Amino acid sequence: xxxxxxxxxxxxxxxxxxxxxxxxxxxxxxxxxxxxxxxxxxxxxxxxxxxxxxxxxxxxxxxxxxxxxxxxxxxxxxxxxxxxxxxxxxxxxxxxxxxxxxxxxxxxxxxxxxxxxxxxxxxxxxxxxxxxxxxxxxxxxxxxxxxxxxxxxxxxxxxxxxxxxxxxxxxxxxxxxxxxxxxxxxxxxxxxxxxxxxxxxxxxxxxxxxxxxxxxxxxxxxxx
Length: 224
Description:
Blueprint: E1 9-14, H1 19-22, H2 36-50, E2 58-61, H3 65-77, E3 85-87, H4 104-111, H5 113-121, H6 133-153, E4 158-162, H7 164-175, H8 179-182, E5 193-197, E6 203-208, H9 213-216
Parallel strand pairs: 1-4, 2-3, 2-4
Antiparallel strand pairs: 1-5, 5-6
Helix pairs in contact: 2-3, 4-5, 6-7
């Protein structure tokens, strides 16, 4: 078993696979729940975190049930269901606007592959009616600074279970990286990231916990 971590630990987890992830749909602020695979990913995430013997003082999640469900499962695996949970729309996934609910192949047919790629992979160009990653950062940063960081500054251990792009925004803050660099960062579903933070609320150490595929995926999804 891994040695217990000290205070000032922040753990980030992207929710497990959702029903719309599986269908290759743009999800954004839409509210599908987890697939069977997503349930497994959440349980495995909890078990990996448990190996580090972190006692959490508070947890944060978004207003969307795929993240909330993932957090509930993780806390159950940790036997820490008493931990207070704060839910806030500031941690929601990036809003994909008119792309929301569309299959990604359908979106490419409607707007063209180059345009859809630009919306998905640029830092500051939003899809119609939606948000860019820059817009997402603009709501995550003040929430982190005003709400999450003060908890850690008091010596508390904190977990945040949210979404690919809201977590990318938080990683930009923690690691002080720019919009170009963060676009290269892939976040796997159900894969915890453990941070130790300095006095300024920024990362001094990072550890990625990646599950073995045989644990994270149901048998029909394994590569034989």
